[in-house]
Amino acid sequence: MNASLPDVPEVRVVGLPLLTSGFDLVERLDLAMHLKVHGPLEPMAGEPLARLAEQIALRGRGGAGFPFDRKLRAVADAAIRRGVRPVVVVNGSEDEPACRKDTVLINRAPHLILDGALLAAEALGARTLVIGVTRDSTEASMRTALAERGLGDRRGSALRARVQRNPVRMVTGESSALVRSADGGPPLPPGRKARTSEYGVGGAPTLLSNAETFAQLAVAARIGADRYCRTGLREEPGTVLLTLAGAVTRPMVVEVPTGVPLRYVLQLAGAPALPQGVLTGGYHGKWLDGVTANEAVISRAGLEACGGALGAGAVLPIGEGTCPLGESLRVAHWLASESAGQCGPCYLGLPAAARGLADVLQGGGPTALEALREVTRTVKRRGACKHPDGSAAFLESTIAAFTDDLAAHVLGDGCGRPVAGVLPLQAEAPPAQAPSGRRLAVDWTLCQGHGLCADIVPELIQLGPDGFPSVAEAAVPRYSEARASRAVRRCPALALRIEEDPTPVTRPALPTALPPGRGRRALGSGRQ
Which ranges carry the NADH-ubiquinone oxidoreductase 51kDa subunit iron-sulphur binding domain (predicted)? Predict the structure, then answer.
């Protein structure tokens, strides 16, 4: 079982360091050491800063990869058109269990991030800076950095800067969730589509980008576009930060120029010589089989060309001794548990997709496989945020990358390998997803198969082919408590009740081995 990654794992560099300059000298670059290592930074006007970002082809490093110059210009145009001051937001909410690159930067080089954010704020005329974080270590480091610069959230200041602490949740790092929390609301996507560049924090145009993106901007502003572009590929210059975890002997964050072969980075971390597969881009990313991974190069375009993704910068190999579909099932359960519970594609679709993959592994045959494919198709492009889309892409990639193992499970008796649990996952349940300590129970002596319960709480109760609930009882997560109570009240046969769960309220362990028994059943068919 792969242990959880520390906030600040080992840091390595391939070639000359840019973002990690000075890491060999001290554990954390305070303001004095930061200036000794990187030197002073002169302010830039808005259009020269946008041209610089365009010349170095700077894209967001949080996963979406949107061109930074276009985002900067969009915010500036909206601010001028509406006659309001824009806001700058640094997204340091790195909540995937397999990602630590931004956490490392905030803990060890916070002033490089602040340099880029303050550069953008000065260019835009912004008077508010918000830094979103989710960990104790990143909050402490960033608060210290602001104090070292004499910045704070004081009224009357030329720039009001503050740290916004949110819980460790996959969805809290989504841009609209971070904006919502900065305005005093819950750290969840609001459920409506809105461009942050038009209406963000306080309704003002907001420049929101990932922590590494601002650090890259600060480096380029110091050394200039020409020197910056001498590193890495011509079309994607510079370096990237990657988190190496999974089946490696040395989990690490590594700074590497674009264009370096992926196999070299894997060897650096002690991955298997020929991994069974490599998950690229994190848990919203895509799998590469071992042969393809051996030929891939580190860049956004290079990984996409071979079916992978740069995404959030996580690279996770797995060895031959584990079932890749079982490893993916563990991640699918985790992704489902990270739902905000606000929209159907998340709180219904993702648990259904996880159950679908489990059905495939338990011998559901081609019917179960087709049902899984149908679920992943239906959740895409329908959510309040990108969590359903990224999760569906991960599952589709799993099915496409491990065809031999898939055939063994669908057409035979399985691959015969255990699930080693090499992909890191968080042990704690998010508050909304944690068990409530209550169970929704069906009284079979009263149930008449009306099916209203399945309409009200489909995430807990599904109907079997006979029209009756397929479960006798189900643990109720906190976000489903209100709907579960409504289902009890509306049951015409009074066949439902909510009971206190006598077992301790803990998060159920994610599967580390495939369940015994291979009753050929399809998705949602028959009683469990």
Answer: 325-369
3-class DSSP state of 77: helix
Sequence letter at residue 250: R
What SS3 state is found at 314? strand
| Tally of structural domains, the chain | 3
- Rounded to whole angstroms, the Cα distance separating 476 from 494 reads 18
Return the amino acid letter for 427: A
128 within domain boundaries: yes
Q: Indicate the residue type of 428.
A: E
Residues 6+ apart with CB under 8 A from 426: 4, 97, 168, 334
416 belongs to a structural domain:
no
pLDDT tens, per residue, the chain with 528 residues: 456 789 999 999 999 999 999 999 999 999 999 999 999 999 999 999 999 999 999 998 887 788 999 999 999 999 999 999 999 999 999 888 999 999 999 999 999 999 999 999 999 999 999 999 999 999 999 999 999 999 999 988 899 999 999 988 888 888 888 999 999 888 888 866 778 999 999 999 999 999 999 999 999 999 999 999 999 999 999 999 999 999 999 999 999 999 999 999 999 999 999 999 999 999 999 999 999 999 999 999 999 999 999 999 999 999 999 999 999 999 999 998 888 777 777 778 888 899 999 999 988 889 989 989 998 888 887 777 888 899 999 999 999 999 999 999 999 888 999 999 999 987 654 554 555 678 889 998 899 998 888 888 776 787 877 888 877 788 887 767 887 888 999 999 999 999 887 654 444 444 454 544 444 433 333 333
CATH number at residue 132: 3.40.50.11540
The domain containing residue 108 runs over which residues? 17-227
Cα-Cα end-to-end distance for the chain: 28
Residues 434 and 479: their CA atoms lie apart, in Å, by: 9
Q: Is residue 382 part of a domain?
A: no
Tokens of 342: 């606000």
pTM score, two decimals?
0.83
At 464, is the secondary structure helix, strand, or coil? coil
